[in-house]
């Protein structure tokens, strides 16, 4: 219930997505998603996607910056923005390349930081600016198909090249900074609906591993095929 109360905006967007998806599946169309059309033309292969969503349930117990902070960890839900370019193969397979921005993630720690000269106990807060590039493979599994209207479950996996600029502040106002970057796996699953023309919609749940954290995201995506 706490998650629901903290994500009213996202839940409202999800309800709008479900309404649009239902309308798409019940609206006549002349273009089939991912296959040859009735005139034998080549299917739409390329697509662009814009996704917006929220982070939730960030799993981390330790934060290292000039030492180690251990103890209770809490975080504020953040936002995520992703712009992707995709290429479809064999109707239900695709590869995607995306630019991902998490904005600012804020966290709080209660514990001890060891800077090599003894432990310092207190409250610590961090702000992280995370962005990166993802390369993934998508597999669609259709569960509804009627004429040009199609809905699929999908699973997606690949690699995420991330960069994190972190600032930590202690109870006395002292600020430390750190920059890190690496490549880690990412995976997701969701539902895609395409029913009219060249547009489609996705609801997607994705996990990223970034800087010893597991970050879960829930996103709504708009796709345009060409």
Structure description:
By secondary structure, the protein is mostly beta strands. 10% of the residues lie in helices and 68% in strands. The chain has 2 helices and 10 strands; from the N terminus they run ααββββββββββ. Strands 1-4-5-6-7-8-9-10 form an 8-stranded antiparallel beta barrel. The protein is elongated and about 65 Å long. The model is unreliable at 1-7, 24-42 and 65-72 (pLDDT under 50).
Gist of the model:
The chain has helices at residues 2-6, 8-25; strands at 46-59, 62-64, 68-75, 79-89, 93-114, 119-146, 149-169, 175-196, 199-210, 213-225. It is mainly β.
Defining key terms:
226 residues; 2 helices; eight-stranded antiparallel β-barrel; elongated; mainly beta; disordered N terminus
What's the total helix number?
A: 2
User: Which term fits the overall shape?
Assistant: elongated
Question: How many beta-strand elements?
Answer: 10
What percentage of residues falls in helices of 4 or more residues? 10-25%
Distance between the termini: 41 Å
Indicate the topology.
Layout: H1 2-6, H2 8-25, E1 46-59, E2 62-64, E3 68-75, E4 79-89, E5 93-114, E6 119-146, E7 149-169, E8 175-196, E9 199-210, E10 213-225
Antiparallel strand pairs: 1-4, 1-10, 2-3, 3-5, 4-5, 5-6, 6-7, 7-8, 8-9, 9-10
């Amino acid at each position: 219930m706490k998650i629901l109360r903290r994500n009213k905006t996202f839940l409202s967007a999800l309800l709008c997505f479900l309404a649009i998806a239902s309308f798409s599946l019940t609206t006549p169309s002349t273009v089939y998603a991912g296959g040859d059309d009735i005139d034998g033309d080549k299917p739409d292969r390329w697509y662009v996607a814009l996704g917006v969503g929220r982070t939730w349930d960030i799993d981390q117990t330790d934060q290292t910056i000039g030492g180690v902070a251990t103890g209770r960890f809490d975080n504020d839900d953040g936002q995520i923005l992703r712009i992707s370019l995709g290429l479809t193969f064999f109707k239900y397979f695709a590869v995607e390349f995306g630019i991902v921005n998490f904005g600012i993630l804020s966290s709080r720690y209660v514990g001890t930081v060891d800077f090599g000269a003894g432990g310092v106990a207190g409250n610590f807060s961090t702000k992280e600016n995370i962005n990166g590039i993802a390369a993934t493979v998508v597999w669609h599994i259709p569960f509804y198909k009627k004429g040009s209207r199609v809905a699929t479950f999908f699973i997606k996996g690949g690699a995420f090249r991330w960069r994190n600029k972190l600032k930590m502040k202690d109870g006395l106002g002292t600020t430390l900074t750190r920059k890190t970057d690496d490549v880690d796996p990412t995976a997701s699953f969701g539902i895609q609906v395409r029913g009219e023309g060249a547009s489609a919609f996705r609801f997607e749940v994705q996990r990223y591993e970034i800087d010893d954290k597991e970050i879960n995201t829930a996103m709504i995506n708009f796709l345009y095929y060409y």
